[in-house]
Write a structure and sequence with these properties.
This protein is an all-alpha fold. It is built from nine helices and no strands. Keywords: Membrane, Transmembrane, Transmembrane helix.
Length: about 260
């Protein structure tokens, strides 16, 4: 595996692992509170839809000229990467609550237990079905987008698909073994790293799509990524000076909830 291939595998694996952890938390809540049969049906249905999406979008990307593809993918990765990086910086600096899978699991579990049971067609519990279906589909669409865009841009969709599959299998096996949300996974740190990688690849491919030439070609990523990380860490240090204190943090959180 070349250096570029290794970077591609790592970026796809980490990004997909984060999405898989979030999907796993929702499915565990649905299965634990409502029963695994309907939750499993929701997972299978979502996977069928995702397979159809990948089957359509994968070949379509190969028909786009490489320059236009890199410009498009670079722009999309910048949008996703900057969003992830912004949230990671706000969390690391204390301006946003850390992502807590245990808390999310508890909320989903409570909501699932309070919901009324309803049978539709062959699904015995529609709530568990739809909860699992939506969780896997939404997170799975992001996984598919990451794998297809990264793989299509590098003309190595199989490698990106293998990285995504490895991430999903690893997270699923870990979740089944623990039978609980993977709260010990440093998800906030992973999101920071993934945000840096997506932003770096977005800048790199977007510039190449606009016919710019990076010094050192692919080796420029070894400079772009560390500089992006240093810039983000600098923002964290700067924002920590104005972070809410522990006494005022609950009031700030309450105000944010009221606004939303």
């Amino acid at each position: 595996m070349t250096g570029t291939g290794g970077a591609l595998f790592a970026a796809v694996f980490l990004a997909c692992a984060v999405e898989a952890v979030e999907a796993l938390t929702i499915v565990l809540a649905a299965g634990t509170a409502r029963g695994w049969r309907s939750a499993g049906q929701g997972v299978i249905s979502a996977l069928i839809v995702l397979a159809a999406v990948v089957a359509v979008l994968g070949p379509a990307l190969t028909a786009i000229p490489l320059g236009a593809l890199r410009l498009l993918v670079g722009a999309l990765l910048l949008i996703f990467g900057l969003q992830w990086l912004r949230k990671a910086v706000l969390r690391a600096s204390g301006h946003k609550d850390l992502h807590d899978e245990d808390a999310i699991f508890s909320r989903e579990l409570a909501a699932a237990r309070d919901a009324q049971a309803e049978r539709r067609w062959v699904v015995t519990d529609w709530y568990a079905y739809t909860l699992s279906f939506k969780g896997v589909l939404l997170e799975g669409l992001e996984v598919a987008f990451i794998a297809i865009t990264f793989g299509g841009n590098q003309h190595d969709v199989p490698l990106a698909a293998i990285a995504a599959l490895c991430a999903i299998v690893a997270v699923t096996l870990a979740g089944l073994a623990a039978k609980a949300p993977l709260s010990r996974v440093p998800e906030n740190t992973l999101k920071f790293v993934v945000g840096v990688m997506l932003t770096s690849f977005g800048m790199f491919w977007g510039a190449e799509g606009a016919h710019a030439r990076w010094p050192g070609s692919d080796a420029a990523l070894l400079v772009i990524a560390p500089l992006t990380a240093l810039f983000a860490l600098g923002l964290v240090a700067l924002l920590r000076r104005s972070a809410p204190s522990r006494e005022t943090a609950p009031r700030v959180a309450a105000l944010e909830m009221e606004r939303s």
